[in-house]
Structure formats: C-alpha cells, structure tokens
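fyi for ur records
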Amino acid sequence: MKNQMDEKKPMGFIEPELLSAVLCQNQRAILKKINPKMLSTYCWLMDELHRRNVFEDQEYRRKFGGYYRMRFVSQRYRDAFFALFQEVKSQSAVSFEEVAAQLYQSDKRHEFSFISKILHTVDPTRPIYDSQVGAALHIRRTYQADLNRRLRQDAELLDSISAYYRELKSHPQAAELLNAFDQIAPAYKISVEKKLDFILWAWGGR
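which gave:
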C-alpha cells in the first residue's frame, strides 16, 4: 500500500534521496549562483510587503517585477496582479485557486509561476514554482483545457512540492547543504522553503 507521501508525489518527481545526494555533490556550483544581490532583493521584497501599498508603490512593483521577471504580461494583467496582491497580502491562508481565478479574469491568462510568488511572499512557507524548480524536481505538468481542472492541478502540485520539501529537508545531505546556505547568507532571515527554492532554482538552471 502506498503511504500518504507517495500519493501526494506527482509522477516525475525525482526521489528525495537521489536529489539530496546530487545537490550535495554539486554544493559549490549551486551556492556560487546564489549571489548577495539576489538575497538582498528577495529580503527587501519580504520586509517591505506590509510597509507599502504594493499596488500604488512603483518602487515595490518595479523591484518585484524585475526580480521575478514579469516581462511578458500586459499592463492590464500587471495592474490586476498588484491590486489583488495588495488585497490578499494579509491573508496567509488565501487559496491558490481563488487568486488564480480572479487574475484569470483580467486578460484570460493563467500565470502559475507568478501566482505562486504572490502566495510565497504572503506566506514564505509556501513554495514557488518556476521552470527551473520544475526541471530540478523532474516535474511534468499536463495540459488541461478546462480552467478549473488546470487550477486544481496546479494547486495540488504546490501542495505536493510542500510535502516533498518536508521530506527532502529531513535527509542528512540536504541538511548539510542548508547549513552551507546559511554560511553564505548569515544576515538574512529566510524560510527553509525559500532556501530550498534558491538551491533548486540554481540547480535547475544549470
């Protein structure tokens, strides 16, 4: 019988034992890609979230958009994004599907990665999804023509990544890499989930 973790793990996820070993073997190359500017900008975005109106504040919008590479979305989507971001920023339990459905109404686009970044900024224990993390974890998403099925699939995928991170960080080699991460970022308070995101982003983009 499969255990609960097996049921949550989407087909294509690399086994945590294997990934932790590979990451540890490539520790130096991974950490080299995580530079001080990247860390400081991320922490600025987290620190300033509740000090600014993220819809009206152009500096916050510019830095968030630059950091997370919001290059190919319309101004209409961008405005809707930051308006909703401001609305939900104090709602740590807001659901992925709720945010995604509201944003879809702006210009009929479903931007999975950007939505995960809203949710992570609101609650840093929630994971981010992007193509590099997907590559590192060997995730395969399937196309869903129906919007509700697409949103449900992506919500479940984020839940699966959270479950995967809980398992991954328990492995000694992953714990060793997280400790090494702390040595390059001693001044920053960063969640374990974001540390893993930085590490997987660096590895997935190799």
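The radius of gyration is 17 Å. thats all i got for now
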